[in-house]
């Protein structure tokens, strides 16, 4: 069956109901803006409330790193929208241990899973009946380019994101017959409050200027949140109606750098 695709520069998401986790800053905030611009209704969340959310975004305070937090968020999302078409699991957090893998405490291995993997699993499970009911529903999970390379100081974070990627593929296979698409976006180094701090920590610990990270990227710069939000917008839109189970790397060519 042919899919209706309009030719304007922004896909039309009018009538779509979207939940974006971690939309208070960085990549998530730009995803929220893009979805609103495309006509979707958007609900977003973070642990720390902010007062400069884009006009039209609905905000709920929640900690998605706990089972109670995701349960509450799923319940309140359905109470607000009555259903859901788009889920973007963006919230995530990392702390670098420049001393290496042996210095990563047990609680941080668990914390990496709690912050970067389990929120997507729990939210998806809680919201699945609504997503299956919605026509052309889409899930996008935000991973990290750290799964494509090797970074001992972030081994716990990389392991959690790798779990997210494996889970997303299995979910995509199971949900394809139910018309729910599941894709992963893999960002490289993107300028955001959270990631800038990690890069600075690593640069300070190893004694290199932080600018060398951007200089080592084939396309010559760090990404900006809109580079990632553009990919998310595409993947949740009807323009990607034949794409599921994919991993879209958006990293300025970092994965092919020698
Ligand atoms: N920027 C990069 O270079 C980069 C590279 C690869 C992957 N990523 C991934 O991209 C995603 C967004 O990262 P970012 O760079 O935009 O990070 P950021 O600037 O730190 O923003 C993270 C957002 O998630 C929220 N958040 C974090 N933990 C949360 C929790 N437990 N419950 C609810 N909200 C939570 C934060 O708000 P609160 O802190 O107030 O809760 C904030 O809104 C993450 O999954 C990250 O792993 C980023």
Question: How do the helices and strands line up, and which of them pair or pack?
Answer:
Elements: E1 17-21, H1 26-37, E2 41-46, E3 58-61, H2 67-81, E4 86-89, H3 106-116, H4 118-133, E5 137-142, H5 155-175, E6 180-187, H6 193-206, H7 211-215, H8 225-236, E7 247-250
Parallel strand pairs: 1-2, 1-4, 2-3, 4-5, 5-6, 6-7
Residues 21-22, 24-28, 45-48, 62-65, 90-93, 115, 142, 144-145, 187, 189-190, 192-195 line the site of NADP nicotinamide-adenine-dinucleotide phosphate.
Notes on the structure:
This protein has 258 residues and is of the alpha/beta class. It has one domain (17-256): Rossmann fold. Helices cover 41% and strands 14% of the residues. It is built from 8 helices and 7 strands. It has helices at residues 26-37, 67-81, 106-116, 118-133, 155-175, 193-206, 211-215, 225-236; strands at 17-21, 41-46, 58-61, 86-89, 137-142, 180-187, 247-250. A 7-stranded parallel β-sheet has the order 3-2-1-4-5-6-7, sandwiched between helices. Helix 1 (26-37) crosses helix 8, helix 2 packs parallel to helix 4 and helix 3 packs parallel to helix 5. The chain is globular, with a radius of gyration of 18 Å. Bound molecules: NADP nicotinamide-adenine-dinucleotide phosphate. The site of NADP nicotinamide-adenine-dinucleotide phosphate has 30 residues, from helix 1, strand 2 and helix 6. NADP nicotinamide-adenine-dinucleotide phosphate (NAP) binds at residues 21-22, 24-28, 45-48, 62-65, 90-93, 115, 142, 144-145, 187, 189-190, 192-195.
């Amino acid at each position: 069956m042919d899919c209706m695709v309009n030719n304007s520069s922004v896909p039309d998401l009018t009538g779509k109901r979207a939940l974006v986790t971690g939309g208070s800053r960085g990549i998530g905030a730009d995803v929220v803006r893009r979805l609103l611009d495309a006509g979707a209704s958007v609900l977003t969340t973070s642990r720390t409330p902010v007062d400069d959310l884009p006009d039209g975004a609905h905000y709920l305070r929640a900690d998605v790193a706990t089972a109670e937090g995701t349960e509450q968020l799923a319940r309140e999302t359905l109470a607000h929208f009555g259903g859901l078409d788009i889920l973007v699991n963006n919230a995530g957090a990392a702390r670098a241990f420049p001393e290496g893998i042996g210095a990563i405490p047990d609680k941080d291995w668990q914390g990496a899973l709690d912050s970067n993997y389990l929120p997507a699993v729990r939210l998806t499970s809680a919201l699945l009946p609504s997503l299956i009911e919605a026509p052309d529903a889409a899930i996008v999970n935000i991973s990290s380019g750290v799964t494509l390379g090797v970074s001992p100081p972030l081994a716990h974070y990389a392991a959690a994101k790798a779990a997210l990627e494996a889970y997303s593929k299995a979910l995509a296979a199971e949900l394809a017959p139910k018309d729910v698409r599941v894709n992963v976006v893999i960002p490289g180094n993107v300028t955001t409050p959270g990631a800038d701090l990690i890069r600075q920590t690593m640069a300070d610990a190893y004694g290199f200027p932080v600018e060398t990270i951007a200089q080592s990227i084939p396309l010559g710069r760090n990404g900006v949140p809109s580079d990632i939000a553009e990919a998310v917008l595409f993947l949740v839109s009807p323009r990607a109606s034949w794409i599921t189970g994919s991993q879209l790397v958006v990293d300025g060519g970092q994965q092919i750098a020698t």
